[in-house]
Every structure is written in structure tokens, then in C-alpha cells.
């Protein structure tokens, strides 16, 4: 089974480990640069992106995390994790806006706390590209993706009419190569067998096949 690391500085670490092990993967926390090497894939969890970014810098994890993403290794960032992966952050702290406390590598512009300006948290089904049934999208002071670069595939949006306001139609799930990111928390409310975690495991499989040259 692949081994998936979950960055364990702050946030929803145990929930991601549980979701991954429920799918038959091995998973555990990552706190040091050396622990990254053995990971076939990595999750940057939800939590507080400013705290995670500050701690990552403090523990000299930013450069290894950037190298991990740059090497096209499989990564899933959720909520705060999406903010950390984004190349451009609107409404972030100065250190997020200049990239000194983010990982980057995902060619998107995110708006931090975007949904939170209207309603702090909510749940709505999200139809993900390629998935047969909608996934429960749990949003907690979540960012949305304001715009994507040319290499980024949009996997999901908030549905609904413009009458629902600013949130309708917003991009909330993306993929760029081996990097996946969601605005919502797939580790919460998934009821077992999370589609998003399954997708990460599929990306890990693809990466392993590519490395074997098949
Ligand atoms: N608002 C948080 C941030 O900007 C993200 C919230 C979350 O991960 N649930 O980091």
C-alpha cells in the first residue's frame, strides 16, 4: 500500500489519516523534512493557513515542501492547504501575499476566507468531474479559487443560481498535474470512502506507474 503523509503542524491531521486508512492506504503525520522523503503522497490539511505557514517556515519545511511539489509528487491541499499551495493569495496576510509563508506551486489565485465573508460555514453537495455521485462539501471559512492558470483543470464548482449571491459558480476543486486542491473539507462528512482521498490515491498510482515507465 502507498504511504501518505499528512503535514502535522496544525489542523485536521487525524481526520485525513483516518480517511486514508479507511481506503486501505498507510498514512501518518509528517513533521520533519526527512519524513517527507518516504511519502508517496502528501496531504496539506485544513486548519489555519497562517499558523501552518509560520510553523512550516520555523521548522525549515517550506523549501522541502516546495521541492516536493516541484518534483510533481502527489499532493492534496484542503482549505488552508489550498491557500498554502496557491501561487497567489488575495486577502491573505502580507507573508501569504508575498509567498514567504506559503508553499506555492499551484497556478491559481485563491481568495482567503472568501465564503466566510458571507456565512462562516455551510455544507453543499459538489459534483466533482469524473465522480458519479456528488460529494458532501463542508466549507469552513473556506477560500475559493478566483482564477486558474492554463495548466489547471477545474474539478468542481459550487452549484446554484446567481440569486444565491457571490458563491454560486465559484471554483472549489482543482487539479494541476499531481497536485489536487479543494476549498472544502473532504475528511469531514464523507461517511467513509471519500472520493477526494480516492482521487489522491489514484494520482499516487499513476505517479508510481509513470516512475516504472509503464
Ligand atoms: N480560513 C482558514 C485559512 O485561511 C482556512 C479554514 C479551514 O481550513 N477550515 O487558513
Automatic annotation (TrEMBL):
Establish whether keyword Metal-binding is in the entry. no
The record lists the organism as Nocardioides zeae
Q: Name one GO cellular component term.
A: cytosol
Q: Mind telling me which HAMAP family this protein's record contains?
A: PdxT
Identify its protein family: Belongs to the glutaminase PdxT/SNO family.
- Quote the protein name from its UniProt record: Pyridoxal 5'-phosphate synthase subunit PdxT
Which GO MF terms are attached to this record?
Answer: glutaminase activity; pyridoxal 5'-phosphate synthase (glutamine hydrolysing) activity
Quote the catalytic activity from the record: L-glutamine + H2O = L-glutamate + NH4(+); aldehydo-D-ribose 5-phosphate + D-glyceraldehyde 3-phosphate + L-glutamine = pyridoxal 5'-phosphate + L-glutamate + phosphate + 3 H2O + H(+)
The record, for NCBIfam families, names: PLP_synth_Pdx2
Question: What are the UniProt keywords, alphabetically?
Answer: Glutamine amidotransferase, Hydrolase, Lyase, Pyridoxal phosphate
Q: Catalytic center at which residues?
A: 79 (nucleophile), 185 (charge relay system), 187 (charge relay system)
**One biological process GO term for this chain?**
L-glutamine catabolic process
Per UniProt, where does L-glutamine bind? 47-49, 112, 140-141
Q: Main role?
A: Catalyzes the hydrolysis of glutamine to glutamate and ammonia as part of the biosynthesis of pyridoxal 5'-phosphate. The resulting ammonia molecule is channeled to the active site of PdxS.
How does this protein assemble? Answer: In the presence of PdxS, forms a dodecamer of heterodimers. Only shows activity in the heterodimer.
Pathway assigned in UniProt: Cofactor biosynthesis; pyridoxal 5'-phosphate biosynthesis
Q: Which SUPFAM superfamilies match?
A: Class I glutamine amidotransferase-like
Q: Which InterPro entries match?
A: Class_I_gatase-like, PdxT/SNO, PdxT/SNO_CS
Enzyme Commission code(s) on record: 4.3.3.6, 3.5.1.2
Amino acid at each position: 500500500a502507498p504511504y501518505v503523509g499528512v503535514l502535522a503542524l496544525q489542523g485536521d491531521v487525524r481526520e485525513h489519516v483516518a480517511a486514508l486508512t479507511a481506503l486501505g492506504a498507510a498514512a501518518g503525520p509528517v513533521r520533519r523534512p526527512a519524513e517527507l522523503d518516504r511519502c508517496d503522497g502528501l496531504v496539506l490539511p485544513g486548519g489555519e493557513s497562517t499558523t501552518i505557514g509560520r510553523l512550516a517556515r520555523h521548522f525549515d519545511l517550506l523549501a522541502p515542501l516546495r521541492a516536493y511539489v516541484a518534483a510533481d509528487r502527489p499532493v492534496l491541499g484542503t482549505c488552508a492547504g489550498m491557500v498554502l499551495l496557491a501561487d497567489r493569495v488575495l486577502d491573505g496576510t502580507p507573508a501569504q501575499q508575498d509567498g514567504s509563508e506559503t508553499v506555492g506551486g499551484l497556478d491559481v489565485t485563491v481568495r482567503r476566507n472568501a465564503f466566510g465573508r458571507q456565512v462562516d460555514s455551510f455544507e453543499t453537495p459538489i459534483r466533482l468531474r469524473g465522480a458519479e455521485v456528488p460529494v458532501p462539501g463542508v466549507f469552513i471559512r473556506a477560500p475559493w479559487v478566483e482564477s486558474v492558470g492554463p495548466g489547471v483543470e477545474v474539478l468542481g464548482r459550487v452549484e446554484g443560481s446567481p440569486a444565491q449571491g457571490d458563491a454560486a459558480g465559484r471554483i472549489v476543486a482543482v487539479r494541476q498535474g499531481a497536485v489536487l486542491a479543494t476549498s472544502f473539507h473532504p475528511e469531514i462528512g464523507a461517511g467513509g470512502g471519500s472520493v477526494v482521498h480516492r482521487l489522491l490515491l489514484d494520482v499516487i498510482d499513476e505517479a508510481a506507474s509513470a516512475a516504472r515507465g509503464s
